[in-house]
Amino acid sequence: MIEIVAGVDIGGTNTVVGLVTKNGDLLAEKTFSTRNHNHFNNFINTLSQEINTLLNQVGGDYIIMGVGIGAPNGSYGMGAIVDAPNLEWKGTLPICKEITSRLSIPAVVTNDANAAALGEMLFGGAVGMKDFIVITLGTGLGSGIVANGNLVIGHDGFAGEFGHTIVEINGRACGCGNKGCLETYASATGIRRTISMLLAQSNQPSIFRSLVPEKLSAKMISDAATNQDPIALEAFEYTGRILGIKLAEAVTIFSPEAIFLFGGLAKAGNLIIDPTKRYMEEYMFPIFRNKVKLLPSALEGKNAAVLGAAALIWKEINV
Amino acid sequence: MIEIVAGVDIGGTNTVVGLVTKNGDLLAEKTFSTRNHNHFNNFINTLSQEINTLLNQVGGDYIIMGVGIGAPNGSYGMGAIVDAPNLEWKGTLPICKEITSRLSIPAVVTNDANAAALGEMLFGGAVGMKDFIVITLGTGLGSGIVANGNLVIGHDGFAGEFGHTIVEINGRACGCGNKGCLETYASATGIRRTISMLLAQSNQPSIFRSLVPEKLSAKMISDAATNQDPIALEAFEYTGRILGIKLAEAVTIFSPEAIFLFGGLAKAGNLIIDPTKRYMEEYMFPIFRNKVKLLPSALEGKNAAVLGAAALIWKEINV
Q1: Is B120 among the domain residues?
Q2: CA of B209: how far to CAs of B58, B203, B213, B229, in Å?
Q3: In a mutagenesis test of the B interface, which of A165, A184, A260, A291 is the best target, namely the one with the most B β-carbons within 10 Å?
């Protein structure tokens, strides 16, 4: 029997679950919608079933040893997800206990962006780096920060909420209850809001004038930009400017060797990286200028958060 | 012979030098102006003379083993001060080599705010804390950040330049070449600029209408506020709002147990702490609200940076 674990990346829109060996090889993977589970227990049921389906798929040579989970506002210490702005279930969700009660194996949870940072450090572009930042651009904006070779977890275990730094006082309403948070601008949801803003401000023709706003995905916006839709192009410029300015601030605070972009909006590649890099350098504290790499996740396609969550549970069970 | 070291805190306005025992006892201290040394070598000459004067003062029972220095843009790795916006000498200043050549003892340098954080951790209010931030409000604004029990130094050694995060795009011109940096608002120099701004906007009477702007000190402004000068009171409110918002962002990123305020402007006590705390809580990411202590340095009067710089050289010479 070959020992494996499940790595889970819970996002506001989709959840990805994968079976992972001790070397970080991904044997099988499944994506399903995080939404449409009106009760958290229903979500846990779906997740448990998907893990069992994947296990059947890879066959009888494997035994599952544990489940590692990356989730928004995931608290390692509490084994729970706590008041995540981008999930529909509120309060404290004891996800580790629920998984263990269904599958009878240990489970650990951490912040989704911390999981992505662990994955990048162990298997991706940050191998050998001691100071770097992973920014996840999904439904929200998460950050996993590594300083002196260790994840910055903070006193409460909730450090790294870079998506809730403030871009504009009294700016866009955020799911956290505040206004003007970075993730209301720089995320898959944020760029969709920017499209609506630009449709109001501009009178240029755009495919988005005939599409339902809440159905827009980051992929549709990047496809439109590739087709030279002027509103889509301007939306990437606008998003990159805000993200670039905030990343310049992050560099000034952390002096990282590199910043990695990961998640749905990061898949737009140079459409988002180029303006972000340009504005980051423009607003950078001079001694850091042209020193910090801005890179796509080296695990894109594989999913750094799934691999990182898997690495976390491997470390925990220590087999 | 009792072994001692010199701890040095170089600020944009004043330099403080103290003789410190291995237990952190301060035997003697002297403050002199950092300015009016047109060449860096003249400053080093003054500093060396002041150390010798202090040694004569404490008498013949003591032997000096090394010099620890906290300075703006001090690089531990390079043993130098590099392009510090608030010092009049530019370029790379090899301060350790210069001190050693004059006094024939080892010297180390680090960022002044990092030295203050070390002092706070070893001898002050942060004893036993693993995650905290020290903000120095002097000529500029420095930050020493401790995460997981270690100073955040960064890939380049220049992490912690929180004073150069951006408050307002195209805001006040900063010594670093950028605009709108936090330290142009929240520092002894920043509140002086705020006084000028308020004198323009308001028509209320104020002592500052009859004083020379560049001669205003943080002490004069806090004395005026204590005497209910309306412009001085509003300047503290304005400064506290900006500092509070940026500290809310720092909490969101680091999840510290406490934030300590240190330096000239911090001596204003509740005049600066109260509005800063109020706005910090108002703009805080909700899960962190009412959890993070905002405190004056527990070493105020002694000088955390002098003690921290001393601790650093004690560690280095390891006697």
Answers
A1: no
A2: 45, 10, 9, 11
A3: A165
